[in-house]
């Protein structure tokens, strides 16, 4: 049945339109007109402010996020995003429905990117920096696949489509010289046969491309940047530790209730290797003192104050405690 007016008998409505706030607001304004009283109105947004979306209705208590991870027929995770006015019964309905359809629900708060994508952005920022400093996509990705992840950030970008991020950067007035140059060359990833890698006809296997190496070197030369050799240990630490730091910030802000919730998000939404237990569990294994010290070191080395350990991480490190100790009160 086509037409938004036909939602009138539904108990739960899940919106999955394009990831643009104006479109989401328009849809929710219409849903408010046609949905029956008490129906749960869910948005599948992966980044946007659920409170702003809820404000388009006269029933913000019935509005929440149900962020299904892509591809939704494979990935088990569903982030249930609790808005500031979401009612407990709406939240319980969303959690129950997610379980009924064999998903793993994790309740999270409202912020840009929620839990998973917010931490992924911290990793992505470092991955991009490596290209400017001296690494190539295949080196960065190999470090992560060796760690146990199904793919690295650049192969993942090619799979998702590089034009999506490019369009988003243009909307926000943000520049990323290497990524922009790749898109300007018509390289959007697997769908065009070329992105950070090249792909042979009918194959999804990424192959290193000398053209990309040349493009990266030319772009950094134009910017007057001196490239250097970067070892795999530095790549691993700078990809993982800022993500863990962001996880600590998420706990500070009470976006996630407990460290294990963050681990569940990464295990079921991003293919984190099960034997490593999730990023916060992994942090406890490495030692929070080590992670805090290395973050401070990289903050100074790369002139990036955002890498300094968060107050929570610093406090736990100083006290010789773990993230797991937070669950014990």
TrEMBL record:
<dbReference type="InterPro" id="IPR006108">
    <property type="entry name" value="3HC_DH_C"/>
</dbReference>
<dbReference type="InterPro" id="IPR036291">
    <property type="entry name" value="NAD(P)-bd_dom_sf"/>
</dbReference>
<dbReference type="Pfam" id="PF02737">
    <property type="entry name" value="3HCDH_N"/>
</dbReference>
<keyword id="KW-0456">Lyase</keyword>
<dbReference type="GO" id="GO:0016853">
    <property type="term" value="F:isomerase activity"/>
</dbReference>
<dbReference type="GO" id="GO:0016829">
    <property type="term" value="F:lyase activity"/>
</dbReference>
<dbReference type="GO" id="GO:0003857">
    <property type="term" value="F:(3S)-3-hydroxyacyl-CoA dehydrogenase (NAD+) activity"/>
</dbReference>
<dbReference type="GO" id="GO:0006635">
    <property type="term" value="P:fatty acid beta-oxidation"/>
</dbReference>
<protein>
    <submittedName>
        <fullName>3-hydroxyacyl-CoA dehydrogenase</fullName>
    </submittedName>
</protein>
<dbReference type="GO" id="GO:0070403">
    <property type="term" value="F:NAD+ binding"/>
</dbReference>
<keyword id="KW-0413">Isomerase</keyword>
<dbReference type="InterPro" id="IPR006176">
    <property type="entry name" value="3-OHacyl-CoA_DH_NAD-bd"/>
</dbReference>
<dbReference type="InterPro" id="IPR008927">
    <property type="entry name" value="6-PGluconate_DH-like_C_sf"/>
</dbReference>
<dbReference type="Pfam" id="PF00725">
    <property type="entry name" value="3HCDH"/>
</dbReference>
<feature type="domain" description="3-hydroxyacyl-CoA dehydrogenase C-terminal">
    <location>
        <begin position="235"/>
        <end position="322"/>
    </location>
</feature>
<feature type="domain" description="3-hydroxyacyl-CoA dehydrogenase NAD binding">
    <location>
        <begin position="4"/>
        <end position="109"/>
    </location>
</feature>
<keyword id="KW-0511">Multifunctional enzyme</keyword>
<keyword id="KW-0560">Oxidoreductase</keyword>
<feature type="domain" description="3-hydroxyacyl-CoA dehydrogenase C-terminal">
    <location>
        <begin position="113"/>
        <end position="199"/>
    </location>
</feature>
